[in-house]
Amino acid sequence: GVIPPLQFEIIGKWGKARASKLTLPHHVCSTPMFMPVGTQGTVKGLTSQQLVDLNCGVVLGNTYHLGHRPGPEVMDSVGGLHKFMNYPRAMLTDSGGFQMVSLLQLAEITEQGVQFQSPHDGSTMVLTPELSMGIQNSIGADIMMALDDVVSSTTVGPRVEQAMYRTLRWIDRCIKAHKKPETQNIFAIVQGGLDSRLREICMEGLMAREFPGYAIGGLSGGESKDMFWRVVHQCTSKLPENKPRYLMGVGYALDLVVCSALGVDMFDCVFPSRTARFGTALVASGSLNLKSSEYSTDFTPIDSECQCMVCKNYTKAYLHIVAGKEAIGGQLLTYHNIHYQMSLMSQIRQSIIDQTFPNFVKSFINKQYPNNDCPQWALDALKEVNIII
Amino acid sequence: MTSTFKISDNKDEKCRVGTLEIGEKSYLTPSFMLYTKEGSPINLTKDLLNQLPHEKTHSLQLLFSDLFQFTDVLEKFEQGVHKFLALQDHLLFLLIRDSSSFVEAEFNDDSISVTTRKGKTKITIQDYIKLVKVIKPDFVTSLSVDIAWETSKKKATKIVNSSSIWLEKFLEANTGINTFGVIQGGKFEDLRMKSLQDLLKNKDRLVGTILSGFGTGETNEERNQLINKLIDQLPKEHVKLISGVGSPEEILSLVELGIDLFSTNYPNLMTEWGNALTFKYKMNELKNNDNQEENKINLWDSKFVIDATPIIKGCECFTCIQHTKAYIHHLLNTHEMLAEVLLTIHNVSHYLGFFEEIRRVIKDSQFSEYKKLFLEKRIQINNNSNSNDN
Ligand SMILES: [Zn+2]
Ligand SMILES: [Zn+2]
């Protein structure tokens, strides 16, 4: 068939960790990378230009939300999401299935697709693989996610196996329904819960179909961190070396560092922008709740080493006044937090290229956990890839 | 830092172009002051503020009730309110009247009542002097509170007298900050004149005058009549500031009378309602009679759902260069914060452009013609849209 519009070139490696150049139709990205979430065509309060200023590469859009408003007809008529929000760089859309299952009480999965009651008019609708691809084709993101049968990572028993096999059956319907293979990539999602046998079968099935990239799904849903990293490790060990790997819904700093060490290339999470609106700033030592009175007369920036517009201009004392209260507080903290994520990823990337990755990981952990209280799962995961803290 | 104010020679007309200078900063009038909350212009982070078109240096209305809540912090900060608010490039006016909403404040002989997030506080003239010295804005209003047009003569007399006493005390304290006197008196001409006479005793120690208590229920005719009389007796070199009045029509009639600065939240109010200002303000566009546009558009309107054009083609603002009506409509529809950010940028820019044109036509001695054309066009469009509604 058609050669997918994606090139992946590894430019540095340390153990399983890789730094690479990911060429997508709209942008050449550097991985490992964090992708901010712009659920409804905007990353909370930031302009598309500010996202470019922050050197974001890929921005996420949510198919469930965008499919409802403004809807695929609008997307078609304005020429897709890139044009609609005037974001010149790369974008990725999810399949819509996960959001439905998590947001709608009455969603039910059948062989046909995700059946749900419209929250708007109460009618019964089905998100099929065909419909998901159709909406995602209208949105026009550089990367589309295949519709998968998602189960919570804490689910056990035959449902997990059923979901994994259904994901494999749906994938062929996705491929068939994809109308723009020259300009958009499909990533397949590895399912199988916490069961390594099922994950193995799923990966074999997906890899046989040769996708331009693979995602690790079904994690970050309340499973133990010990199980979490083992599944990631299993997947990154088996998935093709020459294809990007995307760990869905993961974005806490420690997870980013550990999973980059395990060989993940792409991450997304709403956490940095959400926590900003509640008044929290991300820093090397963890996070600062700027609403706390301890910052009321702190005249230093959020992070004196941060080069972002916020840290160059505003003090914690001022941010304390507006954090969690005024719109401008949300705008400023979201700006800084996205910058923090971008800067963390660029440090990871550079240290992989410079062959100093273990040192970077050590200094990162020392700053986040100065009392030697780094969670054991992270130490175990890092040890597995020969980074001894 | 001492300011200077130079005004254009304008023969017979009262409207004038002024240059307000303080330190390195230079600012042209007539203009309007950006509305702020907790010291920040609404929705405009530093990068967005500093890329607005039409003027580089902005003036901002700092609300005393907002700043009051963190004067202790400013005192410890020691590097000044400009740096604290990341507004070093701009002119900061400390004002008591909130231009977004008028509530008649309480006062008595020696204090005013200030409503803050934490409740009400009494501020005496001594407190005020102390706080102003800490805040150190570029310009400050002498202590006073606005009363409504329909306030009783008794109350109006009281605020006139108190304001005069407070002005004396404020100036005695030598804060070193450029001060505006306040003319009070509600609808009573005799009281307004008394307030004016008291102010004139100190005219050389003031950089300007605030015409207080307007936008509180008076008609345009009542307002214009009174202001006309007052301005005639005020020193020419005073900066004349008015608060709480700021629609395009009002601005033109007040500029004509010699008002230099407007403290208004009109562009922000438009934003809150989802409106984008689209009225034509360029002289040559007003002369050209065939473009029947609207004065403003409401972006909640579903007719914009696939409208991939900017609010105004050719507008120099970030929003119009980068984004479409369809996108802003979607952002409103999904209650995304960016809707207000983009509308604020456009509406504030549009107003800055409007004032830029006002200054240009004054310089070219075309103001009367401009005003006439502008109002004719506006009435015509309003009539058209009314008849369309029926
Ligand atoms: Zn920062
Ligand atoms: Zn504009």
From TrEMBL, chain B:
Keywords: Cytoplasm, Metal-binding, tRNA processing, Zinc. Heterodimer of a catalytic subunit and an accessory subunit. InterPro entries: QTRTD1, Queuine_tRNA-ribosyltrfase, TGT-like_sf, tRNA_ribo_trans-like. Signal peptide: none annotated. It comes from Dictyostelium firmibasis. Non-catalytic subunit of the queuine tRNA-ribosyltransferase (TGT) that catalyzes the base-exchange of a guanine (G) residue with queuine (Q) at position 34 (anticodon wobble position) in tRNAs with GU(N) anticodons (tRNA-Asp, -Asn, -His and -Tyr), resulting in the hypermodified nucleoside queuosine (7-(((4,5-cis-dihydroxy-2-cyclopenten-1-yl)amino)methyl)-7-deazaguanosine). Its cofactor is Zn(2+). Zn(2+) binds at C315, C317, C320, H346. This is Queuine tRNA-ribosyltransferase accessory subunit 2. Residues 14-378 form the tRNA-guanine(15) transglycosylase-like domain. One of its GO terms (cellular component) is cytoplasm. One of its GO terms (molecular function) is tRNA-guanosine(34) queuine transglycosylase activity. Binds 1 zinc ion per subunit. Belongs to the queuine tRNA-ribosyltransferase family. QTRT2 subfamily. Pfam families: TGT (PF01702). One of its GO terms (biological process) is tRNA modification.
